[in-house]
Write a structure and sequence with these properties.
The structure holds two protein chains of two kinds.
Chain A (H helix, E strand, L loop, with lengths): L9 H26 L3 E3 L3 E6 L13 E10 L4 E8 H12 L11 H26 L4 E2 L3 E6 H13 L4 E11 L5 E8 L3 H8 L5
Antiparallel strand pairs in A: 1-7, 2-7, 3-4, 3-5, 3-6, 4-8, 7-8
Helix pairs in contact in A: 1-3
Chain B lengths: L2 E4 L4 E6 L2 E8 L3 E7 L4 E7 L17 H14 L8 E6 L15 H15 L3 E7 L5 E6 L5 E4 L5 E3 L1
The chains are: A alpha+beta, B alpha+beta.
């Protein structure tokens, strides 16, 4: 196996999990403030999985999801993807637009902007923590939105990783609101090569 | 009901009637169906990338257009298909996200579709139908009783190629 991610030590995986934890914590706080709801988040999973298995994390390749995608620029280029099941995306839009829950059944351009803005804020909060931790300046691109099958949306990232190997390093957190059952998955997927930059910056290179 | 054979990302499967081959949620990937209408033998490939020679790791030949197609062609000939009768139908190659400054990375769907057509030409296989491009995902299914290639989308309807 020529893939670097298959050689990560337990210490390195722990360090990545901790980064994920702080980043996602920041993001959850930001989201909680915007929608004025308590948000629970899972302890981030740091998983190295076959590319083919990544869509299963969000319900399989044909699950209907909304995805907000951002590129991360700087010394450790990465991709950020915030995925929500379609119903959760609609609920979240209801909350943001002050509509009663269940009123949104398709997205108008205002709703789309609102979802993209959420992605923007989550990514910003996450990258802030990551930048702080690593002393690397990491900046998000403007967000892009798609509402489609999970496999199709993830293919954008997976095909980039496919150039380098057959596995993805996925740092993933699940957000859940207390009563409304809004669920979201936040993925940080470092580009090949970025991982060693991040590990070096936090002092666990070897 | 005929057996439903699932084809994952960066994989291909072959089979004979009665069976259907299906692959879910193609975005920038391309689903290539090869079919011999006489023996009703066929295959479905779900490729992710255009060219194995441009990749740093090419351990899985089913991931690339240039390496997956010759392998799948061999396998369906082994199942009894005649090369001269084999036809191809392709779908996928979408660009899921649009950015103002679309880089090559973002255009991988388009490059995948181009590469598949080039490889088919090189292998001298006739492409009968295609449904590529756009900005939406597709689920594809090859029916081995008829050779019909069904393309399902979320809100762009359903097509039979």
């Amino acid at each position: 196996m020529s893939e670097d991610i298959l050689k990560l030590s337990a210490l390195q995986l722990d360090a990545l999990r901790e980064i994920g934890n702080v980043g996602a914590g920041n993001s959850a706080t930001a989201l909680s403030q915007i929608i004025n709801r308590k948000i629970d988040m899972t302890v981030p999973q740091v998983a190295i999985m076959p590319l083919n298995d990544v869509p299963d994390v969000v319900g399989g390749p044909d699950a209907m999801v909304a995805g907000v995608y951002l590129r991360v620029f700087g010394p450790a280029p990465s991709s950020i993807l915030f995925l929500l099941p379609r119903d959760s995306a609609f609920y979240l839009v209801d909350m943001l637009m002050g509509r009663e829950q269940g009123n949104t059944t398709s997205l108008n351009s205002m709703d789309e902007s609102a979802l993209m803005e959420i992605g923007n804020i989550l990514a910003g909060a996450y990258l802030n923590a990551l930048s702080h931790f690593t002393n690397l300046t990491l900046l998000p691109s403007i967000p892009a939105l798609a509402m489609d099958m999970a496999g199709a949306i993830l293919s954008v990232i997976l095909s980039q990783l496919g150039q380098m190997g057959d596995h993805a390093l996925v740092i993933e957190t699940e957000f859940t609101t207390e009563f409304d059952g809004v669920k979201g998955h936040f993925f940080l997927i470092p580009d090949p090569g970025s991982l060693s930059t991040i590990l070096a910056a936090i002092g666990v290179k070897e | 009901m005929p057996d439903l054979i699932k084809v994952g990302m960066a994989d291909y499967k072959v089979g004979r009637n009665p069976a259907n081959l299906i692959s879910y949620g193609l975005g920038s990937c391309v689903g290539i169906a090869l079919y011999d209408p006489v023996t009703k033998v066929g295959g479905l490939a779900h490729i992710m990338l255009p060219d194995s020679k441009q990749a740093r790791s090419a351990e899985n030949p089913a991931k690339f257009a240039d390496t997956a197609l010759p392998l799948m062609l061999d396998d369906i000939i082994k199942l009894g298909a005649a090369k001269s009768r084999i036809i191809a139908k392709i779908a996928g190659g979408a660009q899921m996200f649009t950015f103002a400054n679309a880089t090559d990375i973002m255009r991988v769907g388009e490059r995948n579709a181009e590469a598949v057509k080039m490889v088919l030409k090189k292998l001298d296989i006739k492409m009968l139908a295609e449904d590529t491009g756009g900005n939406y995902g597709r689920t594809v299914e090859l029916k081995l009783d008829s050779g019909i290639y069904r393309v399902k989308t979320i809100d762009k309807g359903e097509k039979e190629l």
